[in-house]
Amino acid sequence: MSAPLTRRRLLGSLAAGGGGLLLAGCDKIDASPSVQRILGLAEPINLHAQRLVSDRAALAPEFSASEMSPFFRTNGTSSPGTPDYTQLVASNFSDWKLAVDGLVATPLSLSLDAIRQLPRRTQITRHDCVEGWSAIGQWTGLPLGMLLKQARLRPSARYIVFHCADLFNGTPYYESIDLIDAFHPQTILAWGMNGHPLDVGHGAPLRLRVERQLGYKQAKYVMRIEAVASLAGINGGKGGTWEDAIGYQWYAGV
Amino acid sequence: MTDHPETPQGGDIVYRHRLPVRLWHWVNALSVIVMLMSGLMIFNAHPHLYWGAYGANHDHSWLDITPGHLRVGPLVIPTPGILGVSPGGRFVAFPPLVTIPSSYNLAHAREWHLAFAWALVVPGLLYWAWGFARRHIQRDLAPTRAELRPSHIAHDIGQHARLRFPTGAAARYYNVLQKLAYCAVIFLLIPGVVLTGLTMSPAIDAAWPWLLDVFGGRQSARSIHFLCAMGLALFILVHLVMVVLAGPINEVRSMITGRYRLPRERGE
What we know:
The complex is a heterodimer of chains A (about 250) and B (about 270). Chain A is of the alpha+beta class. Chain A has helices at about 5-30, 35-40, 40-55, 85-90, 110-115, 145-150, 180, 240-245, and strands at about 95-100, 110, 120-130, 135-145, 160-170, 170-180, 190-195, 195, 205-210, 220-230. In chain A, the strands form 2 sheets. In chain A, strands 2-1-10-5-6 form a 5-stranded mixed beta sheet. In chain A, a hairpin with a 2-residue loop joins β7 (about 190-195) and β8 (about 195). The mean pLDDT of chain B is about 95. Chain B is an alpha+beta fold. Chain B has helices spanning about 20-45, 105-135, 135-140, 150-160, 175-200, 200-205, 210-215, 220-245, 250-255; strands at about 15, 50, 65, 70, 75-80, 260. In chain B, strands 2-3-4-5 form a 4-stranded antiparallel beta sheet. A two-stranded antiparallel ribbon of chain B has the order 1-6. Chains A and B meet through α1, α2, α3 and β4 of A and α2, α6 and α8 of B.
């Protein structure tokens, strides 16, 4: 049954058709690999522009206890849920060891207790999700730079890769940062949050805090830390799970 | 023929827009539209706004877009089919017609947004530098003391409301409402979106923590970013309506070639 073509209906379908054409055109431009390549040029420009205006040791703002979010939501994986991880939780991570390897002179294997005995830094900082929300929480952990000095990075090491216990489409989550961020004084491997041991929802036993970056860089459930010369050979080659999976920038900066 | 041959009159063609103005106008039009449309998609990732340093799902928001509704403070406005829609099954706050890309994709929207930010900022700074150096801003855009008198502004608003626009020699220059609107865009809304955009960067916050003090925290900056963007969208809407009412062919030609035909005096 076809309704009679009134002027209103005609105008309506013309508008819808025009809008549809416009959308199709825009999406064609968006999907074009060369357009994506050109837009992608902004990422190194943003990295260098931000590094140009900010000292490598410039600290992210820190807050007082009264400025903390009353509730710090979890995001991404709330529990890895694998048998191995469940086993770790059941034993309160007593058998767990953090591996530090790759381009290091002294590979390390450290228990959670050993890590807690090492020097710690406590900081109340703002966590900014790529989606737009922010939450302020307190983090306590081992400065990553201290651990890397202990492991003695080889001169060829350029990136630090974090291999995690949670799976994304069957592949372990991973993230990576460069050495400027790795040796930043606020970059810590947090084992405590808001005055308590780090819980499963927020990344127990260890979670990376790299305070001048967005949330998806703050890898949870860190199992192994690897120093590498290049990110090209690791999984999709873009330096992180979200970078590989949907194309978030490796260095977003905002 | 006229007593003052150097004074142009209605129907004459005058050189109205210099080349840097025309170039910047079109580059900026493209940048602002891409920024607005990709920005609306980024907003779709978390369609809630907050005041202060932090703000997430469990905190008190001042604006939300939920299925079929817009809430601003205590005000809930039904927006069926306009805001809070689910084309193809996935809920989005702003509909596909106004976002880049059209279907939900935060990663691509961010690519567009963070690349075109440079096309907004760099030409904008060049335009500022040229505009001040060549006195375009002081001469053409800054309202005079006389123009800012409430009686003058009220008169201009009255004339605009009756769609009686300047004609003849008076149309060579921007009227006070145009000057105020253009100055608001160039000195308030665009610097506003740029600075609040930078404030949302955790890396820039480490370098320039004073930005957080200026805007009252990252989530306030995000809210102001959105409000400035809505101000720009409103400007574009009014600007386009005025172009159509004032004679679209003449107006668009003047922004391409610089040459503008002065509207004829109304025979009264």
